[in-house]
Design a protein that fits this description.
alpha/beta; Rossmann fold; 3 domains; U3 small nucleolar RNA-associated protein 25 homolog; rRNA binding
Length: 750
């Protein structure tokens, strides 16, 4: 190739961002969603902040439009000629280069995936194969990169400093804080004794179950001796919930889009919002597993943003009010304990969201809640920069993309998953990109937090800003199962630890329970997700120890997603006998290899799709199939587009008997796999509706072979939640208690 080729390669490398170069070096390909790279750095697109959070409708990617050449393929193009191919989701009829079609499927892809499989065995690795975004990914300039001003900013410190500002008279003072009924005051003034803290580790959890009109089955629990429950009143007004000014007037306008309908016009909340806010405002921990992007996601986002702003305004008003009293107080008069109103660091609220679009909508709501109909516009610092880095271009939405509605609702707008931003609020001003230790609110993704928290032995790491978090919101928790759940666990392990540095705090203003390292008992955690999952439940049960108690919504699915299967198909559920939870992984593999796979080795049982939720199970099966020299293709979230095209083509034509498919590939792409005749669920899907979606793929190439279709599902007694979500709670209970290990269901009967 000579100098010309090397110069071309240098130009191609130079056009890639630092994040893309890092990902190519670590994984040999780009992130599943960011494999389209323009030859030129695109200018940041600006979207106007609106009062409504429903304005963004841009889509992330279209495989049905002509594919832009990825950075990986452009690098390959400097070494050899590669045929340009377009991939369409609706019809996989594109003509492929004969030499490419004759390649042994998997030989070129497996080498890279085997490298990643080796990495996956390292439990300490952060950027494991289950983490397509990678540990050391870098976001756009000034957002994800750690800058000197990310933690401190001496130049603008005084403008937003709580210690050097005083309460404005027009803000209404902090009279509401004096009310003994205010739940905020009651919560922060709750006094715990040493013996109560020591008893938490050994105390059994006391629970009480109630049925609420909208939320359904609500379970109150606490590890502290006193457990209080309550039922929602029929009607509530804004004055009774102790909202800080100006929220009483701005909330109605901000929430108006949800109030038109059968609800009474004078109600400030929807029925769901009312019950959720009553729990939030009581400062109990909350787990709500029925939050979906399509149905009630925005409704819930509105109400938790109201709770966040209400909490921040009250906390800051308390500090500013005490500043004024201290200024007017005579020297040596009074007790310093009267002014204990802060934590060890300033950040009080942490909101964890999966994508930049969600962060954009949260900030939009903050502005709307503080501004409302007021003629005085609030001052928003760094607004233009924020629009450019968190906004998206609506024109990027492809007109011919066909995906399920829930997919379009989740993957809308800017779906970058590596970001963090500090927000400072002082009376009628909002400062975006505030230094962390000058921020009231932190909004971040799990990956954005993971890269700043760091790991053991890393020199550059910081988690002191998490020491005094009073309100933690984890929204769309189910999506983190598809990203990297280890990042969430890593975050929870670093919450409310004593800081390593003082960060200029006035210890005479720090609350005693914060000095005693009891902050985790005063932290309220709000956990929202789309499903009941063992890993999410574990986080709620293990890390939520609020003194006010916990509230979890525990409704059980009565029908299950199997009722949404439209094809006529026999579903054979085979139960594995396992001794313990730790042995499930090996037991499933041995059961599949010894009992299930032999039934499908015959050529008659071709066109068999094996759906594998776990990437680690996928690697194990792929290596076994390769060792046994089985005729198979495989698709995972790391497979290149050319590899995906080949695998789908070979499977459709019957040239490959088996197709291994990961759940995360389905989550990120939602391709319709054609040519399926036999379906095996190696494990029940994480999302119950994925079960019906995959089963309904059999309709894609119906050629009168319906009578021969089969579906086999593997499960164990430890899969009770996922089983109930698929077949319904009553059937699941019967299947788990039955002496029989095989159960048959038939759908789509005529």
């Amino acid at each position: 190739m000579g100098k010309r080729g090397s110069r071309s390669q240098s130009q191609l490398l130079g056009s890639l961002t630092k994040k893309q170069k890092k990902h190519l070096r670590d994984f040999g390909e780009e992130h599943p969603f960011y494999d389209r790279v323009s030859r030129k750095e695109a200018k940041p697109q600006t979207c106007q902040l609106s009062e409504s959070s429903d304005t963004s409708s841009s889509e992330s990617e279209a495989e049905s439009e002509p594919e832009q050449v990825s950075g990986y393929h452009r690098l390959l193009a400097t070494l050899k000629n590669v045929s340009k191919e377009e991939e369409e989701e609706e019809e996989e009829d594109s003509v492929m280069d004969e030499t490419e079609m004759n390649l042994e499927d998997g030989d070129s892809d497996i080498s890279e995936e085997e490298d990643m499989a080796a990495e996956s065995t390292d439990a300490e690795s952060v950027a494991s194969p289950a983490d397509p975004e990678g540990k050391d990914g870098h976001g756009p300039p000034g957002t994800s990169e750690e800058s000197p001003e990310e933690f401190t900013d001496a130049k603008h410190e005084s403008l937003f400093s709580l210690e050097t500002n005083f309460l404005e008279e027009e803000s209404g003072g902090d009279s509401s804080l004096k009310a003994s009924q205010d739940p905020f005051v009651q919560h922060v003034n709750t006094k715990l004794k040493e013996k109560e803290i020591q008893a938490v580790a050994t105390n059994p959890k006391t629970t009480h179950q109630l049925k609420w009109p909208i939320l359904g089955q609500v379970v109150f629990s606490s590890k502290f001796q006193k457990l209080e429950t309550f039922k929602p009143p029929k009607d509530i007004d804004l004055k009774s919930v102790h909202l800080q000014k100006p929220l009483e007037s701005t909330w109605i306008k901000t929430n108006s889009q949800f109030l038109s309908g059968p609800q009474k016009s004078n109600s400030p909340f929807t029925p769901l919002q009312k019950e959720l806010f009553l729990i939030m405002n009581s400062y109990r921990d909350l787990f709500y597993p029925e939050r979906t992007a399509l149905k009630n996601g925005e409704e819930i986002r509105h109400v938790y943003c109201l709770h966040v702003i209400n909490h921040i305004l009250k906390a800051n008003a308390q500090v500013l009010g005490n500043n004024s009293r201290r200024r007017s107080q005579k020297l040596g008069v009074g007790d310093d304990d009267d002014f204990r109103d802060q934590g060890l660091t300033r950040p009080k609220v942490l909101i964890v969201v999966p994508f930049r679009e969600a962060a954009l909508r949260v900030v939009q709501l903050f502005i709307s809640l503080l501004e409302g109909d007021s003629k005085k516009k609030i001052i928003v610092s760094n607004k233009k920069r924020f629009n450019g880095e968190y906004g998206s271009n609506p024109e990027e939405r492809p007109p011919n993309l066909k995906r399920p509605e829930d997919y379009e609702a989740v993957f809308v707008g800017n779906i970058d998953d590596h970001f963090r931003i500090g927000v400072a609020i002082l009376q009628r001003s909002i400062r975006l990109y505030a230094p962390f230790y000058s921020s009231d609110i932190l909004i971040a993704s799990p990956l954005g937090l993971r890269t700043i928290i760091g790991g053991e032995g890393e020199k550059k790491r910081d988690f002191d800003f998490l020491s005094s978090i009073e309100l933690l919101i984890i929204d769309q928790a189910d999506i983190y199962l598809m990203q990297n759940w280890e990042h969430v666990l890593h975050l929870m392990n670093h919450m409310n630890l004593l800081p390593l540095d003082s960060h200029g705090v006035d210890f005479s203003r720090v609350r005693m329970w914060s000095l005693n390292n009891w902050s985790k008992y005063y932290r309220q955690t709000l956990l929202f997700g789309a499903l009941q999952d063992a890993q999410i439940n574990s986080v709620f049960n293990k890390y939520c120890v609020n003194v006010q108690g916990q509230v979890a919504v525990r409704n059980v699915p009565m029908t299950g997603s199997i009722s949404q299967v439209l094809v006529q198909l026999p579903h054979v559920f085979q139960r594995m006998e396992v001794e313990s939870l730790a042995s499930v992984i090996d037991a499933r593999f041995n059961f599949f290899v010894n009992k299930i796979l032999p039934q499908y080795r015959d050529a008659v049982m071709s066109h068999t799709l094996i759906y594998v939720p776990s990437y680690f199970d996928f690697v194990r099966l792929r290596n076994y199939f390769k060792k046994e020299e089985l005729n198979f293709a495989h698709i995972c979230e790391y497979t290149q587009k050319s590899g995906v095209s080949r695998a789908r083509h070979f499977f459709l034509q019957g040239e490959k008997q088996f197709l291994l498919l990961t759940e995360r590939f389905h989550f990120y792409k939602r391709y319709t796999i054609k040519g399926i005749r036999n379906l095996i669920f190696y494990e029940l899907p994480t999302y119950p509706h994925f079960y019906s979606e995959v089963c309904n793929m059999l309709r894609a190439t119906s050629r009168g072979e319906e009578a021969a279709w089969t579906c086999t599902v593997l499960y164990s007694k430890y899969d009770a939640q996922r089983l109930a979500a698929v077949v319904g709670v009553e059937r699941a209970a019967q299947m788990l208690q039955s002496k029989k290990n095989v159960h048959l269901f038939i759908t789509g009967e005529r």
